[in-house]
Amino acid sequence: MELHVREWGQGNRVAVLLHGMMGSSDSWWRVTPSLVDRGYRVLGMDLPGHGHSPRDPDLTIERAAAAVVTTAAAHGGSAPALAIGHSFGGLVLAAALPDLRPEHAVLVDAPTSSRGGWDRDEVRAEYEQDRRARTFDGLLRTHPHYNEQDARIEADAAQSFDPDTAAASASATGGSWPPPAGTIVIRAMPSDYVSDEAAAVMRSNGVIVHDLPGALHSVWVSHFDEFVALIPR
């Protein structure tokens, strides 16, 4: 599977961006200008079942990771200089790292394991309910750090989101993809996705973990300057 890609900038230094569940490549609109200014050609990918990418009723984390690797090769040639994954996109990135081989990898408030085995019909119904609730007005009300563009982009992304694709990955067999030494992890504090225990294990394995107290799950929205400063140049 090859994913839909939005490109910003030009040149040979490629940065791959992977959004979170129910998002899209547009979710990175705040971040992409700073990466372009640093000389990156940015590839924002829509993950399977999101945005303009294909749906996949048999999606697994491994299949999503393989799609990322295939798409990066088609658009970027050699291994990217930088890869950033947020939340579900970070989980997919963690699974893709052995084949993607970026110079720098950044996981943003992202789990690195999946329990799997959830009831597909129940998860599909929950995703459908969440998708319907992600309206422009509702996002502005529940996300105080969002501006109107954030809310509009996320509401549009929710309308393009396919609950069945996401439910397929949740009901598939789980797995764990520990990030290698040198990976950068940026987590909100407190985090619902990276526990203190998980962070301690990662640090002991040479992963660089940065904590941003008070940050939102989308940490670049509430702590933009701090987030950008942690991204390798």
TrEMBL record:
Transmembrane segments: none annotated. Keywords: Hydrolase. One of its GO terms (molecular function) is hydrolase activity. SUPFAM superfamilies: alpha/beta-Hydrolases. Residues 16-122 form the AB hydrolase-1 domain. PANTHER family: HYDROLASE, PUTATIVE (AFU_ORTHOLOGUE AFUA_2G14860)-RELATED, MONOACYLGLYCEROL LIPASE. This is Alpha/beta fold hydrolase. It comes from Lysinimonas soli. The lineage of its organism: Bacteria, Bacillati, Actinomycetota, Actinomycetes, Micrococcales.
